[in-house]
Amino acid sequence: MSNGVVIVSHVKEIGEGVARLIKEVANDVPITVAAGLDQGEVGTSFEKIMDAFDKNTAQTLFAFYDLGSAKMNLEMAIDMTEKEVLLFDTALVESAYTAAALLQVDTPIETIKEQLAPLKIK
Fold first, then answer.
1. CA-based nearest residue to 9, from 68, 57, 58
2. Which of 8, 9, 18, 78 allows an S-S link to 35, with CB 3.0 to 4.6 Å?
3. Per-residue model confidence as pLDDT tens digits over 77-114
4. Which residues are annotated as catalytic?
5. pLDDT tens per residue, range 46-85
């Protein structure tokens, strides 16, 4: 599959929990997580995001995050990867779940973007 999902969260358990949830509907979609800091601290890191990009076997990545500083780190990582990364400013759980379910059934990217638009956080 050429499309995958990356979850970025400030809390390890949130990131892993979202990945676990979406695996229920998208077992064939590559999902990687960058969540929390070392020693279980709350936060995000550019390095963990780059690692999640590298470990994801897909060439196009749908990236979802929880809070603003995660977006900042994601944007820096996007500038440093050769993969295509689609960054969504949408509700984390709902949009990651929707995107993964649609990717599982080979829904076109434009259709997925349309489905995620109502979940945009303003």
1. 68
2. 9
3. 999 999 999 999 999 999 999 999 999 999 999 999 99
4. 10
5. 999 999 999 999 999 999 999 888 999 999 999 999 999 9
Neighbours of 18 (CB within 10 A): 24
pLDDT at 1: 57
Closest CA to 32 of 2, 62, 10, 77: 62
DSSP state of 10: S
pTM: 0.95
Nearest C-alpha neighbor of 65 from the set 120, 10, 22, 17: 10
Q: Terminus-to-terminus CA distance in the chain, angstroms?
A: 31
User: DSSP labels for 25-60?
Assistant: T-TTS-EEEEES-GGG-S---HHHHHHHHHH---SE
DSSP state of 82: S
DSSP-derived letter for residue 24 is T
